[in-house]
Specification:
The chain is mainly α and 257 residues long. The protein has one domain: Orthogonal Bundle (MetI-like fold). Helices cover 75% and strands 0% of the residues. The chain has ten helices and no strands. Helix 1 runs antiparallel to helix 8, helix 2 packs antiparallel against helix 3 and helix 2 crosses helix 5. The longest helix has 31 residues. The radius of gyration is 25 Å and the shape is flat.
Length: 257
């Protein structure tokens, strides 16, 4: 039975939970870094239409995007040692943290591969053809034309992925990883002040998410600082003129009578 609510416990629990923030950030940072590599390798066959690898990458993306990450955690943690055991590779002594990072990396890689593919395909093909027409090779075209625009397009999606990954790390405690959510469980059990524990945990996640959100907004504006606006303003002015145009009363655009 939970005890009477006491706001003082919220402020008391926050520093105790922050002591385990490094584990949470380690999971997020490592899985995102590894997921970027996996996502790039998975996206390339679909960008270049490699027949067999393209189908494999689609199956991979569909599986990790279409199943809950909690199930993926159990499959990797309990299933991977069994599969590698058939190859006489013993990974049972590895820390559970490695399995957690691998699971989140594979999950992130599926979303990152789609993000990369969408960002590259969002670049106008006419710009790529123009780059080739003036003598740029494939690497120069990618570096100077595709990459700057693709980064600007992908930042909002990448920011959502990182923040979502941060919140999903709360499931790591189901495998015994003592990160912030796992610590909140032990604090709640020891003090019987579960509500205060969850409020403190929510505040920490909220503040970190806001900081990350503001950081990605700044990064998006920085990467898109050279984006053209000369075509946007005329449309905006035309829209404003349309808003101020008198409404016709006779259906012909003129005055009555």
């Amino acid at each position: 039975m939970s005890r009477r609510f006491d706001i003082n416990y919220v402020f008391d629990f926050i520093p105790k939970l922050l002591a385990y923030l490094n584990i949470t950030l380690l999971i997020v940072g490592s899985s995102i870094a590894l997921g970027l590599l996996i996502g790039l390798l998975v996206a390339l066959p679909r960008l270049y239409n490699v027949p067999v690898l393209q189908r494999i990458s689609r199956i991979y993306v569909s599986f990790f995007r279409g199943t809950p990450i909690l199930i993926q955690l159990f499959l990797i943690y309990y299933g991977l040692p069994e599969i590698l055991g058939w190859l006489h590779i013993d990974v049972s002594r590895f820390s559970v943290l490695y399995f957690v990072i691998l699971t989140y990396a594979l999950n992130s890689g599926a979303f990152i591969s789609e993000m990369i593919r969408a960002a590259v395909e969002a670049v106008d093909k006419g710009q790529i053809e123009a780059a080739h027409s003036i003598g740029m090779n494939g690497y120069q075209t990618f570096q100077r034309i595709i990459l700057p625009q693709a980064l600007g397009v992908s930042v909002p999606l990448f920011g959502n992925l990182v923040i979502g990954n941060l919140k999903d790390t709360s499931l790591a405690f189901t495998l015994g990883v003592m990160e912030m959510t796992g610590r909140s469980q032990t604090l709640g059990t020891a003090t019987q002040h579960f509500i205060e524990t969850y409020i403190a945990l929510s505040l920490i996640y909220f503040v970190i998410s806001v900081i990350l959100e503001r950081g990605f907004i700044w990064l998006e504006r920085y990467l898109n600082r050279y984006a053209r606006t000369d075509q946007v303003e005329p449309r905006a002015r035309s829209f404003r003129r349309w808003q101020l145009r008198p409404i016709p009363l006779n259906g012909k655009g003129g005055k009555n009578g």
